[in-house]
Each structure stands twice: as C-alpha cells, then as structure tokens.
Structure to design on (474 residues):
C-alpha cells in the first residue's frame, strides 16, 4: 500500500530563523575563545578571527541561499545535489549525514549536555568494573558510562518528542532559544556594567601592526571560530515543512547568520573585558575549564558558576533538539526517491518521519558509546566542508544549466563571494589531510562506505523512478 501522507508546510519565516540560530549556537560561544587566545595572544586579533570567520560563514550562507531559493524542498542539499550533479553524489551526501556528519553532531552535543549536568549534579558511576573494557583497543564504550547513558537518554527523549509532532519539536526550540538569549544578555549586561573588568586596556589596536600573529595561527584560530558557526545549513533539510520555502529559507538563513555573528561578537567582547589574555591562555592550557564560566565567576562568584553551567546545559539541549528535528528529513527524502530503505520514507499520524527519526537516534546513541568525540569533531568538519564547497560550486553550475529560471534570491557579490568560499573549503580540505591525516582517512572511509550501500539499493529498488525532481510533498 502506497503511503499517502505528506509533510505539512506549517513553519513560517520566524521558525526558519529560530532553527538557523538554534542549530548554530551550541557550546562554541562558551568555549572557543580560550583556544583562540592560545593561538593569537591578542584581544583585537581574537575579535578579528570571529569577524572573518563570520564573514566566511556568511559567504557560504549567501551561496547556499541562492541554491535553496531555486530548489528548496525536504532534504536540503540532498535535493540540491540531485539537480546540480547526479543521484549518486546526492546519495553519498545523505549517507555521510547519517554515517557521521549529523549523527556525530547529535551525539557530541548530547555528551556536552551530560557533562554539564554532571558538573551540577554528580551522575552515578555505572558499571565501573567495565571502565577498561575495550573494542580493538580504540573504543571504550563503558568509560564514564553514567555520563554516556545520560547522553543516550537525552537523545532518545528528544527523538520521542519530535516523533510526536513537528510543532512539539519546534516549540521546544523556540522556548529554549528564548532562555539562551536571556542568559547571554545577562552575561553581557552585568559583565559590562558590574563586572570586575581587568585594569589593563582590553583592546590594543596596535596589536594589528606588531606582526606577532602569523597567517597559520590566524587560520587555526579562525577554524575554532568557524566550528562555533556550524549548523546553519540544516534548516534546508525541512524545506518541505516551510511555508513559501523558496523565499523564507534564503531570507531566514541570512537573517539567522547575521544574528549569530552579532551575538558572538558582543559576548566574546564581554569575555575579553572580564578576562586578560594570560587568564584565557591558562584556561586553555588547563583543558578542563570553560572561559564563560571563569568570566561569570569574576563578577558573580560561585552563584555565577551555577548560572553559567545551567545556561550551557540549556544551550546544548536546544542545539541537540534542533539537530535531531532537522537531521532526520534528508533520510526521509532519500527513501522516497529509492535511495534509502523504504521504511525510512513513512510518516506517522503526526505527519513526521518517525522511522527516520528513530534510526537516526539509534545510530547517534551508538556513536555516544564510541567515546571518540574529539576525533568525531575533526571528521565532521572534514566531511561537511566537502559538501559546503559542492553547494557553492552549484551556484556556478546552475547559472549555466538553468540561466532563465526564476531565482527568488541571487547571491550578493557573484562570482567573487561563492568563489572565495569554495577556495576556503579547498584549503580546509587540504589542511586537514596534512595536519589530521588519521581523521581525514577515517572521514573518507565513512563517506566512501556508502558506495556498496548505493549499489545494493539500486539492486533492491530497480523499478524506482530516476526522476531528478525534488522529493517530498507540496
């Protein structure tokens, strides 16, 4: 029996902006300034890195917005890549999302949530006798099992919430984002008006000409900033549930990224007003401290530590929820196009892809048990920038393939803006291979493992239409 249910276009422009911001603001706004200080040793250069990282992010978002305005539908880049390239490349992208990009993001965020909760309420040490149990000497699934089990429970609870309906998940993201904005505003307001600001000048603009910062160190610091900007592309995954997506998605992406850039600059300027560069470098070297916690401690003491710990908890909760909600949609679109297992393409009575959400949650939970979170983070960046660059290249390809198509939005600064972003993606790809060869190799292995799966699916569903049209219902 053919599944007649279709996704419902229930989300307007406001929710698009909410999902863009909610998918970006995670732990980076609280943690990344310390490693940046360790690289740059200058308040002015740190803010420059945030600005440049934001501009590059904006260039990618502007390029993505043109493609989204032309091709928007459920599945995001999966749908775009079918039209720009072919079904095989589109499948490899979707497989990469499931194998590492989206699911590892969910597991890492959930783990940070569990760690933050553990700093407030000590979680029980479950199965301590199995702490040293190993799989191949690489994975330690029962190490810190209390924290890992909490992360898994969070994934399963949020997955169940999103299975109950789109509005339920969207409403949670909206409420959490409001709390996050309120908390960050309090840090900025009380930090700048009542904080014990350091006595020396916070921002010495002479640092820009002293030559103490190299191109390599600035690039490394900018990558730290760029990790904090990750996630904006995910809103395209729910294109089939957005009203007038070809207008609202491009506007929502650009608006959301601008909001995040502004928030990051103001919040990090506050940290730099409260903490000196030597203090930030010490926080980075300590390894187990968070810059935001120490900044708030400087004017609110132990009560401030509790406040910021709860805020980090709420922020990672919101980002995990947004990642779960948006991440399951590409697999649904793939299944309806014969490029994933058929059951993934079903909708429940609430018109959400429940099987897709369920399997995403299961695999994300497995990745939590792997315990290799730093390694996963490096692999995520390596893999996702391959496809970021492919989307921006698609701007040039579609302008040649579809010159007369109506484009609700055209990328500002074409062809320079998308070209700069493509060059940045190539640089990151090469830099990762050189500096992180193991992570690059594992990332490529996970991506290429989709090839036999693709061949199997083409054999299993040989009669499925090979139409290049977008998946999902209007």
């Amino acid at each position: 029996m053919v599944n007649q249910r279709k996704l419902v276009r229930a989300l307007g422009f406001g929710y698009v902006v909410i999902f863009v911001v909610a998918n970006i603001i995670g732990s980076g706004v609280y943690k990344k300034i310390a490693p940046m200080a360790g690289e740059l040793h200058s308040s002015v250069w740190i803010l420059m890195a945030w600005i440049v990282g934001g501009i590059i992010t904006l260039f990618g978002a502007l390029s993505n917005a043109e493609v989204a305005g032309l091709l928007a539908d459920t599945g995001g880049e999966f749908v775009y890549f079918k039209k720009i390239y072919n079904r095989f490349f589109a499948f490899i992208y979707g497989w990469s999302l499931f194998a590492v990009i989206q699911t590892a993001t969910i597991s890492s965020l959930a783990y940070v949530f569990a760690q933050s909760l553990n700093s407030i309420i000590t979680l029980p040490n479950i199965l301590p006798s199995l702490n040293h149990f190993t799989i191949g000497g690489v994975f330690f699934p029962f190490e810190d099992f209390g924290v890992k089990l909490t992360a898994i429970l969070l994934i399963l609870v949020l997955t169940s919430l999103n299975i109950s309906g789109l509005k339920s998940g969207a409403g949670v993201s909206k409420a959490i984002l409001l709390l996050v904005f309120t908390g960050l505003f309090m840090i900025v307001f009380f930090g700048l008006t009542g904080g014990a600001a350091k006595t020396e000048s916070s921002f010495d603009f002479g640092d820009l000409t002293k030559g103490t910062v190299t191109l390599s160190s600035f690039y490394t610091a900018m990558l730290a900033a760029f990790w904090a900007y990750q996630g904006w592309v995910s809103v395209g995954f729910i294109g089939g549930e957005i009203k007038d997506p070809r207008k609202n998605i491009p506007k929502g992406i650009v608006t959301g990224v601008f909001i995040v850039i502004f928030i990051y600059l103001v919040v990090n300027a506050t940290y730099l007003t409260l903490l000196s560069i030597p203090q930030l470098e010490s926080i980075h070297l300590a390894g187990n401290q968070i810059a935001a916690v120490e900044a708030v401690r400087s004017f609110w003491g132990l009560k401030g530590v509790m406040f910021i710990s709860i805020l980090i908890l709420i922020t990672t909760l919101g980002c995990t929820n947004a990642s779960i909600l948006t991440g399951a949609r590409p697999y649904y679109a793939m299944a309806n196009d014969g490029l994933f297992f058929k059951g993934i393409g079903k909708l429940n009575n609430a018109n959400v892809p429940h099987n897709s959400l369920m399997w995403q949650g299961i695999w994300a939970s497995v990745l939590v048990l792997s315990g290799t979170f730093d390694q996963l983070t490096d692999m995520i960046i390596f893999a996702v920038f391959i496809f970021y660059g492919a989307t921006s290249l698609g701007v040039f390809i579609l302008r040649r393939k579809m010159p007369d198509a109506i484009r609700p939005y055209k990328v500002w600064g074409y062809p320079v803006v998308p070209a700069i972003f493509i060059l940045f993606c190539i640089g990151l790809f090469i830099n990762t291979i050189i500096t992180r060869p193991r992570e690059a190799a594992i990332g490529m292995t996970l991506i290429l493992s989709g090839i036999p799966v693709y061949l199997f699916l083409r054999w299993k569903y040989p009669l499925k239409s090979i139409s290049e049209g977008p998946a999902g219902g209007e």
About this structure: The two ends are 21 Å apart (CA to CA). DSSP finds 18 helices and no strands in the chain. The first helix runs from residue 13 to 24.
